[in-house]
Write a structure and sequence with these properties.
about 290 residues; alpha/beta; Arc Repressor Mutant, subunit A; D-Maltodextrin-Binding Protein, domain 2; 3 domains; five-stranded mixed beta sheet; 9 helices; 14 strands
Length: about 290
């Protein structure tokens, strides 16, 4: 309940009523003879005894998961897998892998959340998350699944009206479609050129930026899978090809401190098989050349 931020959120996550969650917490505190939760106007926090109990309970739960997986028939998975994925193309590119996993393992319950914000894996109760781009430093454990190319694009109408940039310095004179506080990187030979774009159209996901680019509002810096079909159809133009965007990556991240469950390992293997194929590797090589 402390990780969820309160009784209501914990009840929703557990699929229980709020009154039942409260009763069970009260009974647990009575059995232990210790207060586990400190209730304030700002929410619910753990007492020192609560933190100690949670740490031991988490290890016991992890051991139980391993025990269950060990006695299951080979290859069979069950229980719950809660995974976060990016909204921008998670619902189109990662969702099919999760659906395939559910089909292969009918006793497995998959709870997928699609959002472009970085969820708190521990605080929000996720087993793992799929993240794309350049992974920031953190205490999370990460496994690279495959490469991810980026593209700088604009519509033919925008280019006709405003021209096309030929080098990174030209971007300051153009309308840029951006996500807040992001940086854009380009490869200039062996050097990486970094700029901080400014623009009047700001969105929290790349799908919205692609839509704005198609309307001729400005230039977008987005993952290649989102615009490949538009480039092929001629509705978007790949710009500044002499200054390619450095290849980023697709990552599976999980909380630290425990061996990954077989559910997480299986998802990692399926994603790697899908996104680290020879075709993907050739695309990454071309992007870096």
């Amino acid at each position: 309940m402390a990780d969820a931020g309160g009784v209501s959120a914990a009840a929703l996550r557990l699929g229980m009523s709020k009154s039942m969650v409260s009763r069970r917490i009260t009974q647990l505190e009575a059995d232990l003879g210790a207060q586990l939760l400190a209730r304030t106007t700002r929410g619910v926090g753990l007492t020192e005894a609560g933190m100690t109990f949670r740490d031991h309970a988490a290890r016991i739960t992890a051991d139980l998961d391993v025990a269950r997986e060990t006695i299951l028939p080979a290859g069979e998975l069950r229980g719950r897998l809660r995974v976060a994925a990016p909204l921008s193309f998670g619902s189109t590119h990662f969702a099919p892998v999760l659906a395939q996993m559910a089909r292969r393992h009918p006793r497995l319950h998959i709870l997928a959340s699609y959002t472009d914000r970085f969820v708190d894996l521990v605080g929000e109760g996720f087993d793992c998350a799929i993240r794309v781009g350049y992974l920031p430093d953190s205490n999370l454990l990460a496994r690279r699944i495959g490469p991810l190319a980026g593209r700088l694009v604009a519509s033919p109408a925008y280019i006709e009206a405003h021209g096309a940039p030929s080098k990174p310095e030209d971007l300051g004179r153009h309308q840029l479609l951006i996500r807040e506080a992001e940086t854009w990187q380009f490869r200039d030979g062996d050097q990486i050129v970094t700029i901080r774009p400014q623009g009047r159209f700001v969105a929290d996901n790349a799908v919205s930026l692609v839509a704005a680019a198609l309307e001729g509002i400005g230039i977008a810096y987005v993952p290649e899978p989102l615009v490949a079909d538009h480039i092929s159809a001629g509705t978007l133009v790949h710009l500044m090809t002499e200054y390619p965007i450095p290849t980023a990556g697709i990552f599976l991240v999980r909380p630290p401190g425990q061996y990954p469950s077989r559910k997480v390992r299986t998802l990692t293997e399926m994603l790697t098989e899908c996104f680290d194929s020879p075709t993907a590797s050739e695309g990454a090589a071309a992007e870096g050349s």
